[in-house]
Design brief:
Strand content: 15-25%
Oligomer: single chain
Distance between the termini: 65 Å
Length: 272
């Protein structure tokens, strides 16, 4: 009898473990299951980040990432739903399930790898300093005791903090004035309230190309490492990450990614 009771106990434990594993597996893939059921991917974006995702004169969402996301989700059999968010709270929004992914010029960094899982890289970027030509600031060392601007929560500001010997140690107050958006930062640069702006090269090039006074500014390269853009998913969402990678691969194989790059950059900048 004791043996039977013991065996029954072992069976119950085994069953509990199997059920637990099944629940864990289901929970792990629950987000992808929900996405498939709803046939849409909710994408968190900063709607001021030109040319990745922003609003045009008709207040329509446009940009490289907007177009690329539409093509990739179409390859996945889904519809892209764009959700503007506070960029400083992007990882919180992802963790809370308000959005399914972060996809808007989202740079891969070591700090962010601790918070989210990334897809494969799809675009190369770098941080540059934008200055007014009249300021005679043509290299990073010329920013000594000068006022620097950056976007709050940006990878540029993160690089600024993590590698202080490049810029942080020499600028005024050993810190940067942070702005909610790059657009506001550019306004302060034009108004001479800051001397330089640390910014994504893709943003700087596109923004200046649309300004009538673009000849008054210059892009200064520094010693920060090149940065790649990828899609951020919630930690542990392996299935979603893998499906997005498949979608990126399909879009590239079909020439859709390259077409989007040509439209926004005039050349192919996407990574295979």
């Amino acid at each position: 009898m004791r043996r039977m009771i013991k065996l029954a106990g072992i069976s119950l434990i085994t069953l509990s473990v199997l059920v637990g594993c099944g629940q864990s597996s289901k929970e792990k893939n629950s987000q992808w299951d929900k996405i498939q059921k709803n046939k849409e991917l909710v994408i968190g974006i900063d709607d001021t980040f030109v040319p990745m995702g922003f609003r045009d004169e008709k207040e329509q969402l446009v940009g490289f990432d907007i177009d690329l996301a539409k093509e990739v989700t179409k390859e996945m059999g889904l519809k892209a739903k764009f959700q503007p968010i506070d960029w400083t709270l992007k990882e919180t929004e992802l963790e809370n399930g308000t959005i399914d992914v972060i996809w808007n010029g989202y740079t891969v960094t070591d700090a962010r790898k601790n918070k989210v899982d990334f897809t494969k890289d799809y675009l190369v970027n770098e941080q540059v300093l934008v200055t007014r030509k009249e300021s005679k600031i043509s290299k990073f060392s010329d920013m000594k005791d000068k006022t620097l601007g950056a976007q709050e929560g940006s990878s540029g500001y993160e690089a600024f903090e993590n590698k202080p010997d490049i810029l942080k140690d020499i600028v005024k107050d050993q810190d940067a004035i942070v702005f909610p958006t790059f657009t506001e930062a550019f306004m302060d640069l034009e108004a001479k309230r800051i001397d330089g702006l640390l910014i994504d090269k893709v943003f700087a090039e596109y923004y200046l190309s649309k300004q009538n006074n673009s000849q008054e500014f210059q892009l200064v390269k520094g010693k920060y490492d090149n940065e790649n853009f990828a899609i951020g998913v919630k930690k542990g969402e392996v299935t979603l990450r893998d499906e997005l990678n498949k979608g990126l691969d399909k879009a590239y194989a079909d020439g859709l990614s390259q077409k989007v790059s040509q439209k926004w950059f005039g050349e192919n900048r996407v990574i295979k």
